[in-house]
Write a structure and sequence with these properties.
- The structure holds two protein chains of two kinds.
- By secondary structure, chain A is mainly β.
- Chain A has no helices and eleven strands.
- In chain A, the strands form two sheets. In chain A, strands 2, 4, 5, 9, 10 and 11 form a six-stranded mixed beta sheet that branches. In chain A, strands 1-3-8-7-6 form a five-stranded antiparallel beta sheet, with no helix packed on it.
- Chain B is mainly beta.
- Chain B contains no helices and eleven strands.
- The chains are: A mainly beta, B mainly beta.
Chain lengths: 112, 115
Amino acid sequence: KNQVEQSPQSLIILEGKNCTLQCNYTVSPFSNLRWYKQDTGRGPVSLTIMTFSENTKSNGRYTATLDADTKQSSLHITASQLSDSASYICVVVTGGGNKLTFGTGTQLKVEL
Amino acid sequence: DTAVSQTPKYLVTQMGNDKSIKCEQNLGHDTMYWYKQDSKKFLKIMFSYNNKELIINETVPNRFSPKSPDKAHLNLHINSLELGDSAVYFCASSLNLFSRNTEAFFGQGTRLTVV
């Protein structure tokens, strides 16, 4: 079983709607958690970095939450756009920052 | 200006061949990485170099050998290619190891197909 689980595996929503992606992790010791967006055929691009003490962080229409007690994070996308169609990857950094564990990703498709 | 650039973008080769993928970053970063993304889109770290020194070496076959001639370059050489090596390989760099608020920048990826 992967130590960083994401759900749902894939999601289709209509343009303008909101959605929330989930990430549960079991890896430790926790250093920070990152959300990346990966467009088809491109490399991942960082959306947010969250440390232990941060509960919520926003980046435009993206809002990430972190509950370090339950080891859960979510990424909320507001007023979705066609360009939000991509794979969203949750990454947990452990130890001194030299160990990354990637989630399996959520494939999001935004339709008209 | 591309921050992290990889070449080639596509590579099709026969089993048994030896091939190299090059990566360069112009961000002045100390740390560079190679990742492999399989057909299920799962990313896994292969190697990490910090100031030209190997920091992370995950369980990767000996056929894969990274080489860092200087801080700005991290090349990946693969010997005796196998069908299972087919994947997208991503190079990345960061100012230093993934401590708090250290951003990572990824290249566009190299799609390797072994036939």
